[in-house]
Amino acid sequence: MTQIDFHAHILPRCDHGSDGWETSRQQLKLAREAGVEVICATSHFYGHHVSVDSFLKKRQRCYEELLTHVPKNAPKVLLGAEVLAFEGIDQLPGLKELRLQGTKLLLLEMPFTRWSEGLLDSVEAISDDEDFRIVLAHVDRYDRKEVEKLFRLENVWGQVNVDNLKKRFGKRYLREWAREGLIVAVGSDIHGTETGYKDWLTCQRRYAEDWAAIMKRTNGRLKELL
Ligand SMILES: [Fe+2]
Question: How far apart are CA 214 and CA 202, in angstroms?
């Protein structure tokens, strides 16, 4: 089964995840050494500060820079975005372009402040749109009950980060979500090279069965691209 890192900040100078191609090259090397075969480059997208169009232009430039420095046998890179949700985001021109390359999957990051009714309505509007499948970024970081409100919507699933998975998978609800099929992806959420893929490897080994089940779901969702 293809090992897919669904959430990573690896494009040189696209966001604070990598300060240049040397760092990006090292990140890809670490990913490869950890057995990652596909890596989703999900640079931060903040709709209050930048238009979709300028984000895409910048992302493309950064990607092209990366391509000229990709190490041998690097994982395949898919372009995406980690899209910060805000009230009215469903109306954002070009939102579709922020879906993971070749898919309907939108990696949506919920804010760490209180979720207003308006915000929840906007997420619901996206979830009702046939052109989208929402994957909530690092659901391990939020209040369980709040996340469960979103899981009740159509076409909404979650991604977990390996650093929290390592610490918190013992928490029953994360494991329950995984076993109910609500968790469809794992992510290193790598920034820089310090954190590396140590937690990734620990989780893969420690939770082998659940890991394989989650990875199977990611593979299923990306199957045309693998
Ligand atoms: Fe992230």
Answer: 15
